[in-house]
Amino acid sequence: MKKFIDIVFPDLDDKNVRIELDDALSPKTFKAILENLPIEFSINKWGEELYTDRTTIAVEQEDNAKTEVNKLDVAYWPEGNALCLLYGPTPISKNGKTLAYSPVNIVDSSNKDDILNQIKEQAKVIIRESI
User: pTM for the whole thing?
Assistant: First the structure.
């Protein structure tokens, strides 16, 4: 099953990134995200990764969790209870590979790197089910 959510950035005139969650990728994470919407947080930056403050979403690392991700992957980071948007290299990336700090559960990928590059540290974000 697939479900759309919107990640809204109020500091950027409510610009948003629409994400299509896919339960085939990380089914427990998919379910937990939907059960906890809507949520509002501040964004943190780590290189070219945006991640939320600690969330109420609590899911263990799934079987397909990985540290090396594709550019623009959307993931859940079990170690930090946070949602992540990886749009480029992080401080530990090597040889052009995008690396998360520790294994993440992939839930989708985005195509909005132009918006992601504009997000500032501690910007507010609202994550909600698409209307």
Answer: 0.89
Exposed e or buried b per residue across 56-73, where buried means at least 16 C-beta atoms within 10 angstroms of its C-beta: ebebebbeebbeebeebb
Tokens of 28: 């427990």
| Residues paired with residue 69 on neighbouring β-strands, in sequence order | 98
**Spatial separation of the C-alpha atoms in residues 86 and 110, rounded to whole Å:** 9
List, for residues 110-121, the tens digit of each pLDDT value. Answer: 665 667 778 888
Contact (CB, 8 A) for 48 and 88: yes
Distance CA 37, CA 25 (A): 19
The pLDDT confidence band at residue 131, using thresholds 50, 70 and 90, is: confident
Whole-angstrom Cα distance, residue 89 to residue 130?
Answer: 29
Give the gyration radius of the chain's Cα atoms. Answer: 13
CATH number of this structure's domain 2-129, picked from the four choices 2.60.40.1090, 2.60.40.10, 1.10.1200.10, 2.40.100.20: 2.40.100.20
